[in-house]
Write the structure tokens for this entry.
Amino acid sequence: MSVTQASPTDTDLRRSIAATLLPGFVGTTLPAWLEERLRNGLGGVCVFGQNVESVAQLRALTDAIYAANPDAIVAIDEEGGDVTRLYYETGSPYPGNAVLGRLGDVAYTEGIARRVGEELRAAGVNLDFAPDVDINSNADNPVIGVRSFGSLPAVVAEQGAAWTRGLQSAGVAACAKHFPGHGDTAADSHLELPVVDLTPEELRERELQPFRAVIDAGARTVMTSHILLPRIDPDLPATFSRTIVEGLLRGELGFGGVVVTDALDMHGASGERGIPEAAVLALAAGCDLLCIGTENTDAQLAEIEDTIVTAVADGRVAGTRIAEAAGRVLALAEAVRADGAAHAVAAPGGAGAVDPADVRRALEAFDISEHAAAWLRAQHGRYSVVRVDTVANIAIGEAPWGPFAEVAAGADGAASAFAANPLLVLTEGDRPDLALAAQSPVLVVGKDNHRHAFARAAIDRLRAERDSVLVVDMGWPSDDRRYADIATFGASRLVGRALIELLDGLIELLDGERTS
């Protein structure tokens, strides 16, 4: 006699749905509505920069989350560089991926990731949306850039695996992103749906290599991207594509962990369909943990749950698929809880401080042209500073950057001397009077200078009108380095300190050393 398995009850189904949801929220303390949902089985919470005032405050917040749900996932976007949430107010004391990739020191990368993991673990975070293992093969990429370890698959694979090992050795789960690769795009999926016109063979040869490496290194989670790959699935972005999630990621790469979506409030996911429908499609494709967004509400989560319940009733997604996803999330929670017990750590001493040894390592990654080396030898610390402020991509946000982060943090010595120089700030749409940069020589500091017409125009004009101009690019420079006499490959506070010390002559620049 055959036995028909009973369908899950509505209560069971809703509890399984809740376990797959990872919302953000407004504020620095746990809202009552979110606490209640956690008590009822909500999968967890994603913490953003706006939720963090200090490590102590974050620890109090995560304690409240775990008190409501001991099985909660507490996730954060802490890449240890330009993208930082722990140090959103001050800038990160870590170098960032592009610097690490240029250094090529696997042990150093693993050590940096371990330090990041220890800080996160001490703050109560158990899942970090890092490392970014996208291959930045397009210098015009507006959203990846220095978040990538580099443009070569082997480098990104090696560095991504090292970061994964280091982070997870501290008891924090890693999340490799953005599958199957967001590096070859010229569009930002926060704002639109990028199209990557690669064949499966091209993906295997390049984009998938780092994901294989991090999976082999034991990455517990992988994050999908909101990009369209028409040669693989012409209809649906990766996050909603069963061909990509179940076929490529689980089938071909053999990944058995938790598949996390990139934030569903991004235009590339929900712009044409809304977040509730995006949630249905992501679950149907094989995703397990749904990152909802930054400023979610109780009513929004209720709408998402109701929409998924209706989709199950309509046969668009199976109840067993929801249960499978919930089971994977709960298994992850159990695993990271066990890891936490095995890697109990106190808050590291000197957390947030810039380490002089890291400053020297960051400088090693700089690309310094012969013109820049001559400019540095000729100057004695006095120059006009032109700061090029471009619109920050949403992933990075408005965190302080570069030498200006070091100045804002109140650092003394070389930072004070740098801050004493005349400063002119350029922003797009302004009509600046470049004559205000009255003191020659002139130092121009920006990010991704070549991608912004107003920045190129200002730099061209300064070079035409002044005898001594040095241009620093703290983003990902163009291959020809036309707008990067010095390329730092990152703009964290640490990298900013390295630049200040180089400008101040505190770090000796030997002839031919670290020059292109």
Observations:
- The mean pLDDT is 90.
- DSSP finds 19 helices and 14 strands in the chain.
- Residues 214 and 248 are 15 Å apart (CA to CA).
- Residues 319-342 form the longest helix (24 residues).
